[in-house]
Write a structure and sequence with these properties.
- The chain is an alpha/beta fold and 286 residues long.
- The protein has 10 helices and 14 strands.
- Helix 8 links the parallel strand 12 and strand 13.
- The radius of gyration is 19 Å and the shape is globular.
Length: 286
């Protein structure tokens, strides 16, 4: 292996980066990851997805290093099925966010953490984009979504369904700016919005200000005692990850703002651009 990258940690986003519209790793990509792992390459993953879907997506590849989930809100050891770190939203802040969502007429998905387990709740399905999001995760990954009343959805405190760690609203891209305006008064959170590059959906998300892909991969760099970070991503939620990377790359066809922040582009997911670039940097023959 190329000595320059022998002690590097490679981190890749999933959707739009390691795979395309379909959340499935190709047979070729799976074989590449197995080969890289066998040659000593340290590779992990950073995604906005939750552990239930990631467990299924990555079931056929080795994942010896913990992964970053939900934009850095959770660090998870997939192999041991153990949560190493989770960033929670304080009750007072979650209360204000809930009131802002109610005022906007949008019901988000609310992710809660209790007794070492994360569950996803909703009160109403706000449009076809949210419906498609839920149906895909139920059909493909068997992920549970629990319907509750609006009061239960936003309740905090000891009689709540658990600590709030994440709000995720899925709306049409054209409706995203109105929802963001309604939420701008919520302070002491990370409020992020980005378009799904594979559809007309826009994700508007609220989570702890201490959580980000940036902080998560710094945590993983320290955990693995790596001396270098190399990252891959295709969307705006990957930009903080690029800030702390020694090298960063985006698939061809990513938004121009993303491409302007990286060291170079790689071929699209259907050509296994990420794994081929890692092999090129490390000098490994796939």
């Amino acid at each position: 292996m190329n000595k320059e990258f022998k002690n590097a940690l490679f981190v890749t986003d999933l959707d739009g980066t390691l795979f395309g519209k379909e959340p499935v790793l190709s047979d070729e990509c799976i074989e590449h990851i197995k080969k890289l792992n066998a040659e000593g390459v340290r590779l992990t993953f950073s995604t906005a997805r939750t552990y239930r879907t990631v467990d299924r997506i990555l079931r056929d590849v080795p994942v010896p290093i913990p992964v970053s989930l939900m934009n850095g809100t959770m660090i998870r050891d997939v192999k041991k099925r153990l949560t190493l770190d989770v960033k929670k939203i304080p009750d007072t802040v979650a209360d204000k966010a809930g009131k802002s969502f109610l005022a906007s007429g949008t019901f988000p998905l609310v992710y809660r953490y209790k007794d070492g387990e994360m569950l996803t709740y909703y009160a109403e399905i706000s449009g076809d984009n949210m419906r498609s999001f839920i149906e895909e995760r139920i059909e493909r990954f068997g992920k549970p979504f629990i319907k509750v009343t609006p009061e239960e959805l936003f309740r905090t405190g000891s009689d709540s369904l658990g600590d709030v760690i994440y709000f995720c609203a899925i709306v049409k891209d054209s409706d995203g700016s109105d929802l963001l305006e309604s939420l701008n008064g919520v302070e002491n959170v990370c409020l992020t919005s980005y378009k799904d590059n594979a559809s007309d959906s826009r994700y508007v998300e609220i989570y702890s200000p201490y959580a980000s892909k940036k902080s998560a991969i710094q945590y993983l760099k320290h955990l693995t005692e790596a001396d270098k970070l190399v990252s891959f991503g295709d969307n705006f939620n990957d930009l903080t990850m690029f800030e702390v990377s020694d090298l960063c790359f985006a698939p061809a066809g990513s938004p121009e703002k993303v491409i302007s922040c990286v060291n170079g582009t790689v071929p699209p997911p259907d050509e296994c651009g990420v794994t081929r670039k890692i092999a090129e940097l490390t000098g490994i023959n796939l």
